[in-house]
C-alpha cells in the first residue's frame, strides 16, 4: 500500500482508540475529573506520566536539534532527563502527601492566601499556554507533512480530538488515553530507529549503533559524521558553539522547570499514596528512558542521511514530470533531488534557493571552502517524521511515525488542558470566588473551561508555524516554570518560615523577569550581544529562579512568620504516610 494510505489507517485507528477510551473512562465526579479518583495503579500512572512528559518536543524536535546542533543539542536531553529525576525524588512524594488537586491548590493552602493562589493560577496558565503552542506546532507539522492538509487545518483537527477526550473523560479519561498513546509513540520512535541503525551501522540496537562503526568502514559512526559535516563547513558534530555558561544554564533551567511543571506534578496526585507516587515515578523514568536513550542515535542518523540524499542533488522544479526528469538525471550520472524532499518542500518547512544558478543543491556550513553559500534550509522539527522517508523505509513505518508524533503532541496537550481547566474551575471558582458551589456546578465549569482552553489552544497553534523550533518554544515554558513555580513549591516543602508575602514576591519576580527577557530577545529588538551573563532566553529561567528564591527568602524574613498550624503542616508532609490529608481554610 502507498505510504499515505498507511498514514490514514494508523491515524484513524489511533484517534478512534483515544475517543473510545474517553467514552469508556468518562469522569463521573470532580475527583475523577481532576485526579482520576486518586486510585490509578503506579505502573499505569508511570506509563501515562511518560506519555504526558514526552511531548512533541521530545518526539519531534529534540532529535532534530541534536541532529543539527550535535553536542550542543544534548542540553535538552540532559535537562529534561535530570529534571524528571529531581521532580521524582525531591518534590512528588511530598506534594502527593499534601493531598490536593493542583499546584495552585498547594500554593493557596500552604501559603494561606487567596492572592497567592490566584498568582499561582496565572503562572500555571502562562506556562501551560506557552507549552501548548509547542505541541500544536508539532500537530501542524505532522498533518501538513503527511495528510495533505494546511498547517492550521491540522492544528484544529488535533484540537478537536483533544476536545472530545479531555472534556468528556477529564483526568480519568486522559490517564488511560495516555497509556495507549505511550504504546503508540514508543513503537513509532524505536521501530524506524532499529531499521536505520541496521542500514547505517549493521547493528539493530540504535544505542549501540550510535557509538559503533559505520557499515562498510573501519571508522566509528560519529567519526564519519564529524568528517562529513566538517568537510561541508559545519562545526564538528561532537563539539558546540554554545558557551559553557549557556549550556549550564539551559540544562539547569530545563531541570528545575521540570520540577515546577503543573501538568507533570498533577500526575502524582492521581495515585493512592506517597509510596505509590514514588513507584510511579520510577516506572515513568524507565518508560521515558526507552525514548531518550534512542534520541541521540536518531538525530545522528538523520543528519547523515539528510546530507547524503540532498547535497549535490540536481533540483527538479515544480511542474516538471518528476519521474521523467529524475530518470534523465540518473542516466546522465547525476543524482536527482529525492521525492521525499519535494513532498516536504510543499509544506514550506524545506527551502532551496539556487544562489549560483547551476541547479545543483549545495548544502554548506558557515566555514565552507571556496566561499560556497548554503542553498538548503531545513526546519529541524521535520526530521523524526521525515527520517523513514529519507532512509526509504516501508510505507507502514512512515504511517506509524506520524501516528506516534501526533500521540506525543496530543497526550501532552491534554495534560496541559487539564491544568488550565482545573486552575479555572477549582482554584479560581471553587476555592476563591464561589466556595459554596455544588459539585455538579463545578463539573460543569470544569468541562466548559476545558472546552474554552481547547479552542484557545487551537488559535495559538494556528500562529505556531511562525514560532521557533518546538523544543525551543517548550524550553521557554520550562524557564517560566523554573523561575515562578519551583521556588514556592521548594520553599513551601522544605522551609517552615516562608510566608505568603515571600511566596507572592517570589512568583511575581520570577514570572515577570523571565517572561520579559524571553519576549525582548525572541520577539523584540534584543540581540545576542546583550544577553545577561551570556545566557540565552532558553536558559534565563535558571538565573531568575535564584533571584526569585532570594526575594522570597528576604521578604519572608522581613514579614511575620506563618501561622503555627501551617508550620506544623510543613513538618507533617515531610514524613510521608504519617498524616491524613487535611485542608486549611484559605484566608487573606
Q: Would you mind describing this structure in some detail?
A:
This protein has a two-stranded antiparallel sheet. Mean pLDDT is 82; it is low at 579-588. The chain is globular. It has 24 helices and 2 strands. It has a single domain (3-302, 394-573), classed as Sodium/glucose cotransporter (Up-down Bundle), CATH 1.20.1730.10. It is mostly helical and 588 residues long.
Q: Could you give the topology of this structure?
A:
Blueprint: H1 3-24, H2 30-35, H3 42-53, H4 56-69, H5 74-98, H6 103-110, H7 114-146, H8 151-201, H9 206-211, H10 221-231, H11 244-258, H12 262-265, H13 274-292, H14 295-310, H15 322-331, H16 339-345, E1 350-352, E2 376-378, H17 383-390, H18 395-433, H19 439-462, H20 470-484, H21 486-494, H22 500-522, H23 540-557, H24 564-573
Antiparallel strand pairs: 1-2
Helix pairs in contact: 1-8, 1-18, 3-8, 3-13, 4-7, 4-14, 4-18, 4-20, 5-11, 5-13, 6-7, 7-8, 7-18, 7-19, 7-20, 7-22, 8-18, 8-19, 11-20, 11-23, 14-17, 17-18, 18-19, 20-22, 20-23, 21-23, 22-23
Amino acid at each position: 500500500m502507498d505510504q499515505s494510505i498507511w498514514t490514514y489507517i494508523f491515524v484513524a485507528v489511533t484517534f478512534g482508540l483515544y475517543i473510545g477510551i474517553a467514552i469508556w473512562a468518562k469522569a463521573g465526579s470532580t475527583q475523577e475529573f481532576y485526579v482520576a479518583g486518586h486510585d490509578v495503579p503506579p505502573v499505569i500512572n508511570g506509563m501515562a506520566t511518560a506519555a504526558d512528559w514526552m511531548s512533541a518536543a521530545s518526539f519531534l524536535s529534540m532529535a532534530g536539534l541534536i541532529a543539527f546542533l550535535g553536542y550542543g543539542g544534548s542540553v535538552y536531553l540532559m535537562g529534561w532527563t535530570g529534571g524528571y529525576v529531581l521532580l521524582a525524588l525531591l518534590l512528588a512524594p511530598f506534594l502527593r502527601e499534601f493531598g490536593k488537586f493542583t499546584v495552585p491548590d498547594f500554593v493557596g493552602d500552604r501559603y494561606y492566601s487567596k492572592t497567592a493562589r490566584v498568582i499561582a493560577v496565572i503562572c500555571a496558565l502562562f506556562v501551560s499556554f506557552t507549552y501548548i503552542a509547542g505541541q500544536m506546532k508539532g500537530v501542524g507539522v505532522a498533518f501538513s507533512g503527511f495528510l495533505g492538509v494546511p498547517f492550521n487545518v491540522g492544528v484544529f483537527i488535533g484540537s478537536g480530538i483533544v476536545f472530545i477526550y479531555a472534556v468528556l473523560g477529564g483526568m480519568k479519561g486522559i490517564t488511560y488515553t495516555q497509556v495507549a498513546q505511550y504504546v503508540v509513540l514508543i513503537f513509532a520512535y524505536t521501530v524506524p530507529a532499529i531499521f536505520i541503525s541496521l542500514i547505517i551501522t549493521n547493528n539493530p540496537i540504535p544505542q549501540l549503533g550510535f557509538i559503533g562503526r559505520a557499515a562498510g568502514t573501519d571508522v566509528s559512526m560519529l567519526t564519519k559524521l564529524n568528517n562529513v559535516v566538517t568537510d561541508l563547513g559545519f562545526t564538528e558534530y561532537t563539539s558546540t558553539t554554545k558557551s559553557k555558561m549557556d549550556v549550564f544554564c539551559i540544562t539547569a533551567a530545563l531541570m528545575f522547570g521540570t520540577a515546577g511543571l503543573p501538568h507533570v506534578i498533577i500526575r502524582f496526585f492521581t495515585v493512592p499514596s506517597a509510596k505509590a507516587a514514588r513507584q510511579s515515578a520510577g516506572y515513568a523514568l524507565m518508560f521515558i528512558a526507552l525514548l531518550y536513550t534512542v534520541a541521540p542515535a536518531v538525530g545522528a542518523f538523520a543528519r547523515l542521511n539528510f546530507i547524503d540524499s540532498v547535497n549535490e542533488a540536481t533540483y527538479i522544479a515544480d511542474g516538471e514530470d518528476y519521474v521523467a526528469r529524475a530518470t534523465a538525471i540518473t542516466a546522465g550520472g547525476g543524482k536527482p533531488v529525492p521525492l521525499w524532499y519535494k513532498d516536504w518542500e510543499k509544506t514550506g518547512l524545506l527551502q532551496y534557493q539556487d544562489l549560483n544558478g547551476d541547479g545543483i543543491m549545495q548544502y554548506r556550513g558557515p566555514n565552507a571552502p571556496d566561499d560556497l553559500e548554503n542553498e538548503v534550509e531545513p526546519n529541524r522539527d521535520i526530521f523524526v517524521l521525515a527520517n523513514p522517508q529519507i532512509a526509504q523505509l516501508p510505507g507502514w513505518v512512515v504511517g506509524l511515525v506520524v501516528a506516534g508524533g501526533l500521540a506525543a503532541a496530543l497526550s501532552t496537550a491534554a495534560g496541559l488542558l487539564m491544568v488550565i481547566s482545573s486552575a479555572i474551575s477549582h482554584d479560581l471558582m471553587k476555592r476563591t470566588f464561589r466556595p459554596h458551589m455544588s459539585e455538579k456546578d463545578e463539573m460543569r465549569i470544569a468541562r466548559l473551561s476545558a472546552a474554552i482552553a481547547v479552542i484557545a489552544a487551537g488559535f495559538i497553534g494556528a500562529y505556531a508555524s511562525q514560532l521557533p523550533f518546538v523544543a525551543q518554544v517548550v524550553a521557554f515554558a520550562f524557564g517560566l516554570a523554573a523561575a515562578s513555580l519551583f521556588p514556592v513549591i521548594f520553599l513551601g516543602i522544605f522551609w517552615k518560615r516562608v510566608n505568603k508575602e515571600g511566596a507572592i514576591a517570589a512568583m511575581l519576580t520570577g514570572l515577570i523577569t523571565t517572561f520579559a527577557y524571553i519576549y525582548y530577545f525572541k520577539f523584540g529588538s534584543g540581540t545576542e550581544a546583550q544577553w545577561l551573563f551570556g545566557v540565552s532566553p532558553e536558559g534565563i529561567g535558571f538565573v531568575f529562579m535564584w533571584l526569585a528564591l532570594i526575594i522570597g527568602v528576604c521578604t519572608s524574613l522581613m514579614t511575620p512568620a506563618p501561622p503555627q498550624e501551617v508550620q506544623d503542616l510543613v513538618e507533617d508532609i515531610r514524613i510521608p504516610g504519617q498524616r491524613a490529608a487535611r485542608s486549611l481554610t484559605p484566608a487573606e
